[in-house]
Amino acid sequence: MKAIRRFTVRTVLPESIAPLGRLARNLRWSWHKPTEDLFTQLSPRAWEAVHGDPVKLLGSLTREEIQQLAQDPDLVARVRELDADLQTYLHEPHWYQRTQGPDAPAAIAYFSAEYGITSALPQYSGGLGILAGDHLKTASDMGIPVLGVGLFYQAGYFKQSLSRDGWQQETYPVLDPDELPLTLLREADGTPARVRLPLPDGRTLAAQIWRADVGRVPLLLLDSNIPDNDDAARTVTDRLYGGGSDHRLQQELLLGMGGTRALRIHSRLTGAPAPEVFHCNEGHAGFLGIERVQELMNPGAGRQPMTWDEALTAVRAATVFTTHTPVPAGIDRFERAQVEHYFRAGLTPDVPVDRVLELGAETCPDGDPGKFNMAVMGLRLAQRANGVAKLHGSVSRSMFQGLWQGFDADEVPITSVTNGVHVPSWIDPLVWDLAVEPEENDAEPAARWRKVYDVPDTELWAARRGLRERLVLDVRERLRASWKKRGATDAELGWTASVLDPDVLTIGFARRVPTYKRLTLMLRDPERLKRRLLDPRRPVQLVVAGKSHPADEMGKRMIQDLVRFTDDPEVRHRIVFLPNYDIAMARVLFPGCDVWLNNPLRPLEACGTSGMKAAINGGLNLSVLDGWWDEMYDGQNGWAIPTADGKASTDERDDVEAAALYELLEHHVAPRFYGESGDTAGGEPVPHQWLAMVRHTLATLGPRVSSRRMLTDYVQQLYIPACVSGRRAAAEDGAAARATAHWIERVRRAWPEVHVEHVDAQGVHQEPQIGDELRVNAYVRLGTLSPEDVTVQVGYGRVSESDHLHERSSAELAPAQDLGEGRHLFSGPLTIDRSGPFGYTVRVLPCSSELADPAELALVRNAAD
Ligand SMILES: *Cc1c(COP(=O)(O)O)cnc(C)c1O
């Protein structure tokens, strides 16, 4: 029979255990082990059946079961205790309240297209979402007043399974928000709050707003699946990264513009402070800046409207943009005409549409005039921007250099904050108890991780084996289930019960499957891989997982190649592919692996965080020097796979790098793991050198890869400066923003007249020596600008054959004389501080205390121009 109506019946809990509802609805349970244990304990069988989801668990209990629980005095006491603990956690001062001063923002809005918080709320596809989830959880733990904004996708991302011949199959199970830890935001009269965006042809896109509580951090998720909408509008939030570009554009308009409106509604209804800083996590949410410009251009009664330029200045001051991809193809772009079509429908009635279009224009030399580029817009709408690892910062500066013509790549104003991982979510409780001091809010983080040096070898080795064994058992179950889906019968599957060995060196490789991550590099020489797997003395075993984007045929072919290799009866006990990589699998996989393998095509991995999750569990990284590993590999915490960067073709690179991988496995990794230097302890062979690396990894990488370090960096390097700039810009009804905007306009207008007319230097000897001091004189035409509007710099250093300056330093020249008619002499000393080919040059830059970086306006006049 098929039901014709459906509704969700809420469980009513008796008074004595009523706080269970609160504990289930705040997602803190997902990283607070005692709370999670409480739910498991309620009914281990039901917990398993609902795949670890407290809201579903409570919904699945019968009335009798609930009555029984309500009368268990131990349980009632435990519920009270954990509820009190949650209340303390939610309200007591944390790191932020204790250590930050008045310049710290009262609230920070964090926008992201996806959030990976727990498998019970599957709203993520991969690294970006997991990072966003970790960002919110960590902000909560540290008391940082972040508010998350995103979309509620009815089907989240897809579920992956395999066909008989190893081809990826996708399904999209529909989520019922009423069965999720979400609360609908309602107006005072009880009706659901609504965000509405006008669409072309007189249509409207409306959305309701779900609120998830991530510890102290509220997360607002917009959902267009409501009866107010026509059928097409209802499906806007159907899937993460689904549909064509028009669908995607509507999602992003809803996320950025609708998300900003949702924040305002949330503040109005709850009294939450208005965000002082807006953090745009990747380009998808970029339209948030345009909505804020609209707010300032039409601010309502009592406040003076701003012009476009004034509003843009004010918005930029308080915005941080994070770019996540070093691959131009990974950037979100729309047809310019498509964006225009939507904005002409009146999305932002006071914002000139041409100005919106200019923001996304690819004005760099290789840009496409027909495209609207979300990352370019993100950079233009934010006064501060960052990449997600040191190397990625540098790659991003080169990638976007075209927008800052006249500047060297290293001057492009994109800094970096290296990603981190939320330790309580990703560390196994066994490792946590054994190796890390409990989390004291303000304790020096590095000290907490040194506890591992006190753990005896035998104990550490036993713990690592326990984690490996648990993974092996989990793999056997998953593999069996996967084969049954692929059409095998029980009778054929006896072999799955003995797949993998808890005493064999275990290597993990799991990630999304875009081409650059090279899932199949390990198959480059299949015979050589087989020899490693089947080595009688030092075998290795491999656990592989990963989803390919549904539209990526290449990725699916790679998965199929890998699956076919793992299907071979000769090796299938040593290598497995597990379908449907997700948070739940990851939490068993990271702790269980001895080695985490990562072999992207350098430098295309922006950061990567899976290796970090392995590291905090005592796994050693075996990785190409890309992303985070490039800055954190120290020679003793794992291995670097050498890369053939440079001119080699992709094919040649694959050959060279795969060979290096096999060689490392055979001669370095496996011998160390099997400890064949004859180590023994307590009768058991214990590989002391291996364990020394494990200890070193935990103690030194633990504090550095922790997202506490990441959030501290964001607060100090980006949020506080953005807050200070934003407040200054907004003060006195935006007086400073108006003044700065006018100054910028004046500078831009005058800039074509600015020239370095002549440079000379006094004191140059026939044979210059180190220590010689020159006096540099620059005759500069400033037109209508005055010397206070600019900085005149002398840049100097070693010169290359082509006269390019490197190892550059710079010094400011001081205004020395007004020569009349807009001409000025600037002058200053320059000390020759190195031998060899030496050169110098002079340039003019705009200068104001309101600029966060001298390159910010992308204006420069070089002497050579
Ligand atoms: C950590 C994680 C990722 C991201 O891993 P990368 O190293 O960035 O590729 C993706 N999916 C899941 C389930 C994760 O836990």
From TrEMBL:
Domain DUF3417: 13-121
Keyword match Disulfide bond: no
Keywords noted in UniProt: Allosteric enzyme, Pyridoxal phosphate, Transferase
GO molecular function terms attached to this record: glycogen phosphorylase activity; pyridoxal phosphate binding
SUPFAM superfamilies (UniProt xref): UDP-Glycosyltransferase/glycogen phosphorylase
Key word Transferase present: yes
Chemical reaction(s) catalysed: [(1->4)-alpha-D-glucosyl](n) + phosphate = [(1->4)-alpha-D-glucosyl](n-1) + alpha-D-glucose 1-phosphate
Residues recorded as bearing N6-(pyridoxal phosphate)lysine in the entry: K613
GO aspect biological process, one term: carbohydrate metabolic process
Family: Belongs to the glycogen phosphorylase family.
Protein name: Glycosyltransferase family 1 protein
